[in-house]
Amino acid sequence: MSNPFSPAQLWSLADQFGTPLWVYDAATIRQRIAQVSNFETIRFAQKACSNIHILKLMREQGVKVDAVSRGEILRALAAGYVAGGEPSEIVFTADLFDAATLDCVVEHGVPVNAGSIDMLHQLGARSPGHAVWLRINPGFGHGHSNKTNTGGEHSKHGIWHTDLGAALAAIAQHGLKLVGLHMHIGSGVDYSHLQEVCGAMVNLVRTAHAAGHDLHAISAGGGLSIPYRSGDPVVDTQHYHGLWDAARQQAEAIVGHKLGLEIEPGRYLVAESGVLLGQVRASKNAGNNHFVLVDTGFNELMRPSMYGSYHAMSVLRRDGSTAAAQPTVVAGPLCESGDVFTQGDGGVVLPRDLPAAQVGDLLVIHDTGAYGASMSSNYNTRPLIAEVLVDGGQARLIRRRQTVDELLALELGL
Ligand code: LLP
């Protein structure tokens, strides 16, 4: 529901940088970081928004970072993060290594949060003594969509909980150094079974301790949701921390010493800081549906097409007037029927009451700071769009617009 910017500010950014445009508000990000600062380590899941300048902002606030690819490790390094140390500023989380990424974690000494036992063997053979976390699938999970539920037997993520013993044996075999246990059961979690998640973590710590393995930290993973619609629950971060802190204390009683407690949010830290600015370029009626067509599509914001996700929207007219609302289907420029921002799960178009929009008006799509720019593609040969960070009233271009020539250059002159 959030839009940190005034209409005048958005018009001036659209005039200065053009549309479509990603805009982020630094103050909102700092405020969300403060909300979870009772966790001693906040590790930003950069897949949510991996712009180097956003990562620099995170680092300035003392936030550490998670990387899920070689590219994300190189982004973290470019933002000034350094791997190693306790806790390491960078951790690599994955379920497999490709050859180049294995080289990269070994070269830079990046601790690995392993989601498969094969990763432990491959890392151990190359880099005995390397620091590892174990990402465990506790056998259940939850998410805002089936596609974002990462626990349970349908999920490819993590080491199945009953295989913890085998994973620990692989660690011992290669002399790897166990840092901690990690669980991320999904994105957009419902908090009703958080107790169960925390309980599962305590049991895992007990199993590791009984098998003679010491550890230094536990990680609650990410998954904190944000209110995309009015009426959606707002996370009580004190309560959330309290439950995990209690689990940490139980785990400390088992291992007999202090344990670090990490949280790994993506969406929570950045989603509400960002908007996607588009411009209305056409409108038409099809039977009973009124379509407003904008210059941004699912190649920029994929969430509605991929999950049927809801994003609040506003229409801004240059003269500041607001027209009466009418049921509107908002769609993009792509050659795909699914290129619709107002849709439900399964692709059904859902007209939404919006002020009648005219060609030239701005369309503001809210809460797009997470999984917006980072999930964009070049579909229909559309260059990646620019990103702007607003901080203390100053707007700064943090990614310039890609050009079609840059795209063509990948294929020409080979
Ligand atoms: N940690 C791990 C290991 C993860 O896989 C993820 C998200 C996170 C942390 C951060 O989750 P968050 O706090 O942002 O919920 N593209 C989807 C979300 C998929 C997230 C995948 N992993 C979306 O647009 O909702």
Question: Can you tell me about this structure?
Answer:
There is one protein chain. With 414 residues, the chain is an alpha/beta fold. The protein is globular, with a radius of gyration of 23 Å. Strands 1, 11, 12, 13, 14, 15, 16, 17 and 18 form a 9-stranded mixed beta sheet that branches. The model has no long low-confidence stretch (mean pLDDT 95). It contains 12 helices and 18 strands. It has helices at residues 7-17, 26-35, 52-60, 70-78, 99-108, 117-126, 164-174, 194-210, 237-255, 267-270, 303-307, 404-409, and strands at 21-25, 41-45, 64-67, 90-94, 112-114, 131-137, 159-160, 177-182, 217-219, 260-263, 274-286, 289-294, 313-316, 325-331, 352-355, 362-365, 386-391, 394-399.
- Total number of domains: 2
Mean pLDDT: 95
Main beta sheet = 9 strands, mixed
The assigned structural class equals: alpha/beta
The arrangement of helices and strands along the chain is: HEHEHEHEHEHEEHEHEHEHEEHEEEEEEH
Topology:
Blueprint: H1 7-17, E1 21-25, H2 26-35, E2 41-45, H3 52-60, E3 64-67, H4 70-78, E4 90-94, H5 99-108, E5 112-114, H6 117-126, E6 131-137, E7 159-160, H7 164-174, E8 177-182, H8 194-210, E9 217-219, H9 237-255, E10 260-263, H10 267-270, E11 274-286, E12 289-294, H11 303-307, E13 313-316, E14 325-331, E15 352-355, E16 362-365, E17 386-391, E18 394-399, H12 404-409
Parallel strand pairs: 1-17, 2-3, 2-10, 3-4, 4-5, 5-6, 6-7, 6-8, 8-9, 9-10, 12-14
Antiparallel strand pairs: 1-11, 11-12, 11-16, 13-16, 14-15, 17-18
